[in-house]
Amino acid sequence: MIRRILHIDMDAFYASVEQRDNSLLRGKPVAVGGQPDKRGVVAAASYEARAFGVYSAMSMARAVRLCPSLVVVPPDFARYKAASSAVFSIFREVTPLVEPMSLDEAYLDVTENAWNEPIATNVARRVKERIRLDTNLTASAGVAPNKFLAKIASGWKKPDGLTVISPDRVEPFLQRLPVGALWGVGPVTARKLRARGIERLVDIRAVEIANLRETVGGLADWLQQLASGIDDRPVVAHRDVKSSGSENTYPEDLTDLSLIREEVAEMARHAAGWLDRKTILARTVTIKVRYSDFTTITRSHTDAPTRDAALLAARAVQLLVERTDAGRRPVRLLGVSVHNFCAEADPVEPDGRLPFDGD
Amino acid sequence: MELVVRKTDLLRELQLFQGIVERKNTIPILANVLMEAKGEEVKFLATDLEVGLRSRCAATVAKGGAITVPAKKLYEIVKSLPETDIRIAEDKSGVKVAADRFDSRMQTLPREDFPTLPEGSGGVAVQLPRAGLKEMVSKTQFAITGEDTRYFLNGALFVLKPDSMSLVATDGHRLALVTTKRDGVGKADGGEDAQPILPKKTLGEIARLLMEGDGDVGFERGENHLFFHVGDRMLISRMIDGKFPAYERVIPKGNDKHIEFERDRLTNAVRRVALLSNERSRAVKFELEKNKVDVSSSSPEFGEARETLPVEYTGESMQICFNAQYVLDFLAAVATDIVALELKDEVSQAVMTPIGAEGYEYTYVIMPMRV
Do A49 and A20 fall within a single domain? Predict the structure, then answer.
């Protein structure tokens, strides 16, 4: 059966909320994020700001250099969350099959929908209209037979766009898609593929799977499916989380190893608290270190599953001390995450435990 | 500060500090040893904030004073010098260390930055018999995990009673308990209060201090610290916070199967058989039958191994699995010719003890593996 999938992406979400709520910001280049002199990062940029080349994840200092008239607004997540939940309640009116990707982005499977609207394009149009009416914000939508095409479609025309890839237009659409446009194909992978003469996604069809594996490893089978326009991933209303963690950019470079250790340990303990609430265990701890020159490394350690705060902190700190130059080189960002989850009961520990608790 | 000191005297003290100073170098001054010259001697102090050591040696002091010097470098220099007098003198921004025709200058760090450590009360300390303390440390130290999340397991429990003292260590899988007699010289508080947890590093440093010399060890307990007086030296140790598990509960009483082994033969058999044990679990199986014990192992990758040990045993047949390392740790820690293994059934705690040990009682409890 052909599915009808919507991908809906709010336009410049945080910045749009700010412009909506403050008429003085409308029509002006706005960036939401930390202050440039405090090493802030752009969390969202209005379209006016994007015209100057300002994009999210860019350092605010650079953004201000590109656009001296930029209005920097500190983020107010409470208001973004309120706007987000208004948008999501519209989605859930249409279908229970809503897969949130973030505050401002979701997949909807509208093959069957509460509006009994057989044409997905009409569903998308109505959803966009409702968002505008209820929240005074705009969204861009992609309509396609699967998630990967819907995601690409929603990005095709922005802001306030609506792009439809009907089943009979999938093939011509694929024909002109560069490999780099795919989610999961970053610049490095794209470069590797191009080095093999693969420019367009459809070029992958002609490549032997074994050769493709050499180039992109585990991604090969997935890419080959996508090259044929196949993506069977369902829209999952409650997505299983694959990892959890936090990271922090510091207002000033950290040079004191004991302080860096404590930061990392604290983030690991925080992750352990999350595991505790989820009552799951993690096998892998990953730390991320960005040095003052912006080179960024991640280091992982996999061991017996745990959610013990002290143990996770010890593992994270060990990675830090033994496998990074933190302390010898100044550090501007630190992150710790846990992944590779498993349920509580599944590790069988052969070593017997002394029954201190009388059991 | 300016002084002259004999190389041997200085070297003897400095080497004791090598385990104390912070190796990871997170706080620079913790890599230094504080030297204070006064009267006829020079005093030393170093710490990693968990364990600290004070000591002294005779010196001819031309000018009193205090400096902090990189402990490792100073030790290396002193070690490399010939048997002679060493001249140590503070200069503008560092310290000069010279002997014979050798001359050197090293950076120092301000004395004011050196952490202050608590002093012992200076009163009469509890006397701990040296030999007993040595036995206790060497027979429990290895059972401390080092990095257990239950941080109170990262040390050993010290139980001081008027006529005995014990040290208990466990990693949750096995437990080592050593008790030795003491004659009750000096005070010893009873009850929970007198049961501090000693960090693993402290035990290591006590063992190092006890390697030479004789005489009892003075013991004092401060608010957050413990003090061990060994000769002229004093080890200062932080106590680990936390409640040590109720260790008496896991020491089984009714183990009715008793087998005695020659320690060497058992050690060799377990070591050989363990070569083909599962690399992760390191499980070895003990199969008890009339007058023999078969020790065996198997691993999916490599194969199997088995060795038969003749013993005196007339009880019922049974089998039980242990982590080979836990068994070998015990066998390496004791010195008696004969050791005993006492069992109840294949899922309950086993006890190993040395037979004919003098001066100490040693109980080693191992939880069997469920295989």
Answer: yes
pTM: 0.54
Element (H, E) at A109: strand A105-109
Mean pLDDT of A318-336: 92
A302 within 8 A of A340, measured Cβ to Cβ: yes
Q: Give catalytic status of residue A112 as yes or no.
A: no
For strands B350-355 and B283-289, give the pairing: unpaired
What is the predicted pLDDT for the residue at A359? Answer: 46
CA distance B219 to B187: 10
Q: Which of A9, A272, A251 is nearest to A143 (CA)?
A: A9
Using one digit for the tens of pLDDT, what is the confidence trace for B197-232? 999 889 999 999 998 888 899 998 888 899 999 998
Owning domain of residue A25 = 13-77
Task: Strand B155-160: give its sheet, edge to edge.
Answer: B197-199, B155-160, B164-170, B174-181, B360-366, B350-355, B338-343, B257-262
B344 reaches A (C-beta below 8 A): no
Mean pLDDT of chain B: 89
CB B55 within 8 A of CB B10: no
B299-323 burial, b for 16+ CB within 10 Å, e for fewer? beeeeebebebebebeeeeeebbbb
Residue to mutate among B26, B281, B349, with most A CBs inside 10 A, is B26
Strand order in the sheet with B303-310: B303-310, B292-299, B283-289, B318-323
- In this predicted structure, what is the pLDDT of residue B80? 93
* CATH value at residue A55: 3.40.1170.60
Alpha-carbon Rg of chain A, whole angstroms? Answer: 23
pLDDT for A348: 39
Strand partners, B364: B176, B352
Tokens of A254: 């950290």
pLDDT digits (tens, 9 = 90+) for A16-47: 999 999 989 999 999 999 888 878 889 899 99
CA angle (A44 as vertex; A143, A4 as ends), nearest 5: 10
Residues B140 and B224 in one domain: yes
The nearest CA of chain B is from the CA of A333 a distance in Å of: 19
> Last residue of some domain: B202, B231, B247?
B247
A159: cis peptide before it, omega within 30°? yes
The residue with tokens 């690409």 is: A152
**Residue B174: its chain A contacts at CB < 8 A?**
354
Of A5, A31, A261, the C-alpha closest to A111 is A5
Model pLDDT, residue B192: 41
Task: Work out the burial of residue B154: count CB atoms within 10 Å of its CB; fewer than 13 is exposed, 13-18 middle, 19 or more buried.
Answer: buried
Residues in chain B with CB shorter than 8 Å from the CB of A319 are none
Query: Which residue in the set B174, B249, B368 is minimally distant from A356, CB to CB?
Result: B249
Measure the CA–CA gap between B230 and B232, rounded to whole angstroms: 6
Distance CA A310, CA A271 (A): 11
- Tally of CB atoms within 10 A around A160: 13
pLDDT the model gives residue B24: 64
Would you say how long chain A is, in residues? 359
As for how many domains chain B has, the answer is 3
Nearest-neighbour CA in chain A from B153: distance (Å): 12
Residue B32 domain flag: yes
How far off is chain B from A37, nearest CA to CA, in Å? 29
- pLDDT at residue number B348: 92
Judged by CB atoms closer than 8 Å, whether chains meet at B367 and A311 is answered as: no
CATH label of the domain that carries residue A267: 3.30.1490.100
